[in-house]
Each structure stands twice: as C-alpha cells, then as structure tokens.
Amino acid sequence: CTVTCGVGTQVRTVRCQVLLSFSQSVADLPADECEGPKPASQRACYAGPCQGDAPELNPEETDGLFGGLQDLDELYDWEYEGFTTCSESCGGGVQEAVVSCLNKQTREPADENLCVTSRRPPRLLKSCGLEPCPARWEIGKWSPCSLTCGVGLQTRDVFCSHLLSREMNETVILADELCRQPKPSTVQACNRFNCPPAWYPTQWQPCSRTCGGGIQKREVLCKQRMADGSFLELPETFCSTSKLASQQACKKDDCPSEWLLSDWTECSTSCGEGTQTRSAICRKVLKTGLSAIVNSSLCPPLPFSSAIRPCMLATCARPGRPSTKHSPHIAAARKIYIQTRRQRKLHFVVGGFAYLLPKTAVVLRCPTRRFRKPLITWEKDGQHLISSAHVTVAPFGYLKIHRLKPSDAGIYTCSAGPAREQFVIKLLGGNRKLVARPLSLRGEEEALAARKAGPKEALQTHKHQNGIFSNGSKAEKRGPGGDPGSRYDDLVSRLLEQGGWPGELLASWEVQDSTERNTSSEEDQNAEQALWHLPFTMVAEQRRLDDILRNLSQQPE
Question: Compositional bias (Basic and acidic residues) at which positions (predicted)?
C-alpha cells in the first residue's frame, strides 16, 4: 500500500507477453495484441485509521473510494509524442519515440505519477541518417617518442576514410586528395631538451689481420646531444660513466700454413755459371699471433725454382787476357719514343724512354754480350718480375707486355750479372697528355699562352720561366738530376699539347725503323685524322733532348 494509514493504492505490472519458442525467451507486445480485458494494474487499499480513533469506513464509503480511484485511472493515460533527434547525422543513426503522460480531456501533459505505469507503451526506435558520411581524416594515436632527450620524433597514422554504415562498421580507405580538409600532421618533435653527456663510439675499423689474431680499433668520443639535434664534443671528464672499449681482438683463428723463405745466398761462383739457394720452412701463425713451425706436408707444394736459381757474376777470364773485357755487356739504345697513332705491337730495346698509348702490346729486348740469355732477370720499379697472364718473361732475353694499362707505367730493369739497363714506360691519355700528369704549370695564363704557341715557342716558354720547368723547383734546372724516370716529362708534355708538328721540328725526329716496330701492326682507321701525316712512332736520340734541357738550364733567369 502506498500509505501507512488511511486509504492508499496498490499497483502491479500487467504486460502483454509472448514466449518465443526458438530462443526460449519472453518478448513484450503492445497491449492490444492480447485478447480479452486487461487485468487491473492497481487497486485501492486501506491501511487503518490515522491518529488512533478514526471511524471505520462503511461498505458504501469503500465502494465510493474504489470508484474514485477507477475514475482517476481513466482520466490520464500514456501517448507517443514524436521522436527524438537522430543520434547520427550520417552513416545510420537511431530515433526514439517520446512517451508522455497526458490528461485525456485537456490533452495537456501531466505528472507521470498520474498515469498507470503498467500501461506505459514499449520503447519504440526507428533508423535515421542512413546516407553515407563524407570523406574525413581518421587519426591514430601518437607513437612513443623515439628519443628520451635531444629532440626525438613521434609518428601517427592519418588516412582518409569514408564511413558507409555505422551499424555494420563498414569503412572504406580513400586517396588523401579526396579529403577536403588539410591533412593533419603525421610527425612531431618530442623531448626537446639537452641530453646528459655520453660516450658515442664510431664504427669498428677493419681487422689488422685476416687471421692469426688481430686488433680492431674505433674512436670513442664524449658528446652531448643538444635540444636542436646537434652534437657537442666535450672533454672526456664530462662523461661520468665508464668509457667504452676503443679496441678489441678479432680474427681469432689460426692462419693456413705457408712457406717462409730466406734471402738468396751469394752466387756459388765468382765467374761463370753458378747457383743461388735459399731455405724454406713451413710455418703457421696461430690465433694467439705467435708463429709455429709445422710439418712441410701441411704447406702447398713449393716449386723448385723458388729454392734455387742460376746466377753469373761475370764471364771467367781467359788466360793472358784482362777479365774486364769479358764482363757481361748490354747493348742499350739511348732513344726517346713517342707513339702518335695506335698500333697493335711495338718493339723496343732497353736504355730509353717510351711515351705510349694504352692497349698497345710491347716487346722489350735486352741484347747482351758474354752472358747467357736464359739467366737474364727483369724487375719493375725494383720488384722482381715473373711471367703472368699479362706479362711474359721469355727465356730468350726479352719481356712482353700484352696490352698496356695504367699500372704498367714504370721503370723496367734488365740484369745480366752485374750489368743493368733500364727502360721507362709512360702512358698517354686520349687527350694526348700523360696519364700521370706532370706537376702543374706556373699559372693558368702561362699555360694558356703555351697551348696557343707552336712547339718552338713552347720551348722558349720553358726558357723564360726563370730557368725552372713546370713544377717550379730549382732542383729541376736540368741537369740530369731529379727523378730519372721523369726527366723528359715536361718537355714531352709541351710537345704533345701542340696541335700540329712543324716541318722543321719534325725533321729532327726519325721514324721508328723496321727493326724496332712490328711492320704488320694495323692502324686504327678511326684514329685522329689530324695525325695521319705523322709516322706511327716518333723517335729521337736522348742526347738531342739532353742538349735542349742543358741549354734551357743555362739561360739567365
């Protein structure tokens, strides 16, 4: 009862329901769906007299009370009054029917307590805003900062999307240009403050050895990363933590066994044919860096020529004749060669200088007297030469370079006992200049004037450069001093810079004769036509160029 004394009301809920067999659940229905009169949902109740001795109600009064309550129940009732606004503007939303308690006679809203709660109509929903939403930016969350200090970066995903159905959660990704609004930023700076000083190591350098225990080094610096992303190098005392290692062991494996050769012994004879020997031991460098002598079977086979070779210091003197006349002799040719057009092969004799074009095959002879040709040895820049795919050391006293390349330039020496002769090879580039350029000329103006002048004027330019050649060194006041392999480079370079070769200058040069060139050499039909009036190779005696150099060096500054 709604009161503790007097007349009150008792209510109960009466619903129209149906049992759904497929789900074994109960569903509410509108009241008009149920047949028959609806049972009462409220009734009057009496809780006894208030304040003690109130007279009891007689039956007539009780009937009147119940009739009044019934009239009140029929005066107010629930009704639908429109719908709420749509929950979404696009992509599918929901509207809910508004239920109000109304006075049936005046149609004015009344307090909901005056309407029977059990008669309140069920909740009514309907769909709305079903049109697809326009393209818009979908923005993800920022990632953690890439650095804890010294300005890091945060990133996030931003993409253009199109919501088709909110109920089905159906979204389509579109191209960025289909979103009309400016694209939000996908990256931003973070943690913009200076880092504390710390150790920053560089990359490890290559190991000092390929095996047998080596050392790797690296540089470790004390730096501070600033708020703008730059680094400030500091003294090591600013870094409080222990310094990182700046070197470490590497290649801690045993090396393969190898031969260790001693120096050659002296020739076994003072004249005539003798032999030189050297000893060989098989050793292995251990991972600790120490060497150990191992069984010779663990080393690769050693050629016989690596342990013994013939030698001959001089021809033995005949009785009654001085021995000096019978010492070995090399018949050298003191000439300068300049190759002007391409040839397949050129022959030379040791003792001179050659300025050659790349890809030319060169045969260099070392003609000897009183010495056996198989005993002749060859060196390049002081290193002993042996036959290879590119260079052939023939047992008949000559050397063959199959196709010249820049690494072939240098000083070649043939030895016949105590007799030695050299031959210098320099390479010319496609611009008719030395591949290894001589040192720079004195000033761009003088160089330009020299290019415009003829060969005679070029030689005069040398004369007027304070007696100094193009590297500007007083030591080059020729004189035969200086680098013996470069003594003619400046003069040859000046001649090569000229566009033509005047007849009077050409007359001082001679064509390489048939004994010093391969007559079957084929010229390149596409060579520079401007040089077709010249021979394949220009040849001059060294003494002629020595005279020029000597005269220039004697000119007053």
Answer: 474-488
